[in-house]
Amino acid sequence: MAELSYARYGKDNIRLYKVYRNADGTQSVVEMTVCILLEGDIETSYVTSSNQSYPRSNITFSYTKADNSVVVATDTQKQTCYILAKQNPVTPPELFASIIGEHFVSTYSHIHACHVNIIVHKWTRMTVDGKPHPHSFFRDGEETRLVEAVAREGHGIQVKSGIKDLLVLKSTGSAFYGFHRDEYTQLPETWDRILSTSVEAHWQWKTFADLAEVKTVVPKFDAAFEAARTITMETFAKEKSPSVQNTMYLMCEQILAKESSIDAVSYSLPNKHYFEIDLSWHKGLKNTGKDAEVYAPQSNPNGLIQCTVTRKGGKSKL
Ligand SMILES: O=c1[nH]c(=O)c2[nH]c(=O)[nH]c2[nH]1
């Protein structure tokens, strides 16, 4: 006996660009990649067709019985994404993701959940002749802004925001000592090391009742993104880090303190190692400890340190 235990389908890698022609003659642009995944109820809502009853809302029938009548084609989902982008603002991405999610759940009676993921790609306005250029942009880093919105019928909209691929390095001001030692330990303690990581962080908003409630907090989304980015960089730079674990915890605490509508903050930080190179074999060159200047950056393996910090004493308030 076989049973379908998981079913979602949709369109991934929908690439989307929108230009805003501003009243002052300047233009602003947004480029994003969207993923939409739909879920349907498996047991309820039967309709009658001819003399036959069949489960109208049963998305799984498209899998188990080749019944495509319940399938909102993935191409339709892509076209809908473009139409919604034309008819609505695409920024902040948390709002646009919620608009897409609510659309699918409210438009199709047999679709009960819609998962929307958005990656926003950077286009930063150029400075030309010392002035912001009206319509030219460049990519100043691979860092992306992320959003995941889940609209679930009867359960509101859950929104998670994030940042990914923000590559940072500090050449001193980081230590790692006092860690557990046993017969498997070779790593020496260090009071001064290079610290580098590619930041991935997510912050989960309190659950919104509906799209109308999402709309009431729109300005908070950009503000929280800027705050999380600033807190990440300032903590990384200013803190004399005793470990990645402690530094990332401090970042989470500050983001929770800054925005009361955020329930939880997660970080996932690879520890990108830079190894000292002993060059003493060459004419006694000193290149270790306090004399270290030339290092070998390591591609792998890397440490991977993760945490989630949740607001104590229950959920947050708007
Ligand atoms: O900040 C660190 N945390 C660790 O858990 C760890 N483990 C390790 O080898 N180096 C480091 N650095």
How would you summarize what this structure contains?
With 318 residues, this protein is of the alpha+beta class.
How would you describe this protein?
The protein folds into two domains: 1-154, Urate Oxidase (Roll), CATH 3.10.270; 163-318, Urate Oxidase (Roll), CATH 3.10.270.10. It is globular. α5 (218-238) runs antiparallel to α6 (244-258). The longest helix is centred in the C-terminal third of the chain and has 21 residues, at 218-238. The protein has an eight-stranded antiparallel β-sheet with strand order 1-2-5-8-9-10-11-14. The protein has a two-stranded antiparallel ribbon with strand order 3-4. It has helices at 60-64, 74-87, 93-107, 211-216, 218-238, 244-258; strands at 9-21, 27-40, 46-49, 52-55, 111-121, 124-128, 131-138, 144-152, 157-170, 195-205, 262-271, 274-276, 295-297, 303-310. The protein has 318 residues and is an alpha+beta fold. A hairpin with a 2-residue loop joins β6 and β7. The structure holds uric acid.
Order of helices and strands: EEEEHHHEEEEEEHHHEEEE
Helix count?
6
The overall average pLDDT, rounded, is: 93
As an assembly, this protein is single chain
| CATH fold description of the largest domain | Urate Oxidase
Uncertain runs are 42-57
User: Roughly what percent helix?
Assistant: 10-25%
Distance between the termini: 48 Å
Question: What's the structural blueprint in terms of helices and strands?
Answer:
Layout: E1 9-21, E2 27-40, E3 46-49, E4 52-55, H1 60-64, H2 74-87, H3 93-107, E5 111-121, E6 124-128, E7 131-138, E8 144-152, E9 157-170, E10 195-205, H4 211-216, H5 218-238, H6 244-258, E11 262-271, E12 274-276, E13 295-297, E14 303-310
Antiparallel strand pairs: 1-2, 2-5, 3-4, 5-8, 6-7, 8-9, 9-10, 10-11, 11-14, 12-13
Helix pairs in contact: 5-6
This protein binds uric acid.
Uric acid (URC) binds at residues 176, 187, 243-245, 271, 303, 305.
